[in-house]
Amino acid sequence: MCGIFFSCSQKEHEVPSEKLLDDLRKRGPDSVGTRSRTAPLERTITQLESKEQTCNLKFVSTVLSLRGECIIGQPLEDSKSGSLLCWNGEAWRISNDIVQGNDAEAVFSLLLNAAQSCNVNASDGLSSYDQSKQNILKTIATITGPYAFIFFDAQSDRVFYGRDALGRRSLLVKSYGVGSLGISSVSDATDTHGWMEVEADGIHMLDLRASLVSSSHGANRTTHVPWAADLKPDLPYHLTYPFPTLNKDDSNIHNQILTLNSPAVDQLYQRLQSSLAIRMFKIPIPPSKEAAPARVAIMFSGGLDCTLLAAIIHSILPKWQEIDLLNVAFENPRVVQAAAAANARNPPAANSAYALCPDRITGLSSHAELLKTLPERTWRFVSINVPYAETQAHRSNTISLIHPHNTEMDLSIACALYFTARGSGFITDTSTSLDIPYTTPARVLLSGLGADELFGGYTRHNTAFDRRGYKGLADELELDFNRLGKRNLGRDDRVISHWGKEVRYPYLDEDLVSWALSIPMWEKCGFGQVSNAEETDSPTLEPGKKVLRLLAWRLGLRVAAAEKKRAIQFGARTAKMEAGKTKGTQNLS
């Protein structure tokens, strides 16, 4: 995980404010680097009388080092050409080959080769300038994994920037005025106005040589190259979209039943195991005085998705490696007051505000099930209790981090992720029952995000099926998947990474996502399926995410397999902390 920043200005170099630089350092505490460049601007009719114009470029990168044998500082720089790369991501594979060492160096090397390998005799008739652009775009399309990047091709004075097709890493953009641009992992808290999310719908190219002025108004020097599933004649350039369209075929769906013996259950296990294996490979020991601290922590509500991840990780990591389970619960004044009014004669204990949180109850239940089912490992349950006063103390910082998202729902979700990622709580000594303060040293966090969107886990999926059958369900699943980057992932990345942690999403692995989109709906959820009386070995489970529930059941997680879906803001009780009729869609005041 890294923090990246770029600015382009006709005046002096635009540098990040102290607050923005501090937020970037928090994302990447291991290294910080800056580079400056200048690039010529094309002269125009209105500039003929003026002196030669230049564009001042500033690049900043901070690094959280999780790949390779040592810390590799950024921006990466090619001494020969002057090209630069600011990389915030994890390239798990390039052209289907697993990246073994530092992925930023591997990506930079390929981009440099792409920029330089221009065949002027190419049959497609492209100029050297255009062909290098096409080569760079093709190289980007070969990368598998989450990323946001800024690549300066010094030979052609172009800046490429963008996010992966799912939008798993944050990237924001802002115009400082005509000819001036800023790009950053997070917005500037001292001036949030104007920052917008870079959409995860393609890659952008800023041509620094292009004219700033046209005959009528300021010309746009940025070209957008979209992800496209099919080659379109009207698009001179495009990136091959890495995912198939959602399989909506329901021709034989009424005759199908998803059971413990269905091939989809085995296929899910294989793909989840592969996804987790590559995400767990050679995670370095975090800076700590402990001999063998936890290298991985799971954002752990005790629900189906995260508990299933824990069970599969157990089959991958050595048994001596400890795993932290981060479980957050909030003091919600509205809930506390309602409980006190309902039990006036027997007021609840001071700590019941946390003990009675739904996610604390399910978290402890699933933790107990892991201890019983997989006792060979240390499963460290970390209780993260957040008093209302502490929530309020961090409110303004959380609002700044989620920007440009700005609704009550965004804030309530972000608060839960913010304090979970901080990882400070307590663990209970089983021998003395005493609570001991504890902060996880793990810098890699696992999240179950994506399972609901792919496998039909939300209540709205059930509602869509009840109202419009399989067509309604398919449309809702397609909508949820397509808006993941816009609605969730950029916001979540900004909040979680603030603590120098990297969140990884096993359910959003490209191979797993492609498989989930391609299989028929009846192989991932059980809406409308009638139990077969002769199928005695399959349990009766919730229809949402049924394939996940069956896999959990098969792995011995009977309690977790039956857990109902609950949104994080309600499970941790960050929603509606004050009395009133505030709606989640309302903008923050």
Keywords:
589 residues; alpha+beta; 7-stranded mixed beta sheet; 6-stranded antiparallel beta sheet; 18 helices; Asn_synthetase_domain; Glutamine amidotransferase type-2 domain-containing protein; glutamine amidotransferase
Summarize the structure in short:
The protein has about 600 residues and is of the alpha+beta class. Helix content is about 35%, strand content about 20%.
Low-confidence region ranges: 43-50, 119-123, 212-219
Total beta-strand segments: 23
Report the total helices: 18
Largest sheet: 7 strands, mixed
Give, in spatial order, the strands making up the sheet with the most strands: 4-5-9-10-14-15-16
Protein structure class: alpha+beta
| Fraction of residues in β-strands | 15-25%
Shape: globular
- Average predicted confidence as pLDDT: 88
Fraction of helical residues:
25-40%
**How far from one another are the termini?**
31 Å
Rg, Cα atoms, Å: 25 Å
Descriptive overview:
The protein is an alpha+beta fold and 589 residues long. The protein contains 18 helices and 23 strands. The strands form five sheets. It has a seven-stranded mixed beta sheet with strand order 4-5-9-10-14-15-16. A six-stranded antiparallel beta sheet has the order 2-3-1-12-11-13, with helices on one face. A five-stranded parallel beta sheet has the order 19-18-17-22-23. A hairpin with a 6-residue loop joins strand 20 (424-428) and strand 21. Helix 5 (304-314) packs across helix 16 (546-554), helix 10 crosses helix 11 and helix 11 (408-422) packs across helix 14 (484-496). The two termini are 31 Å apart. Residues 43-50, 119-123 and 212-219 have low confidence and may be disordered.
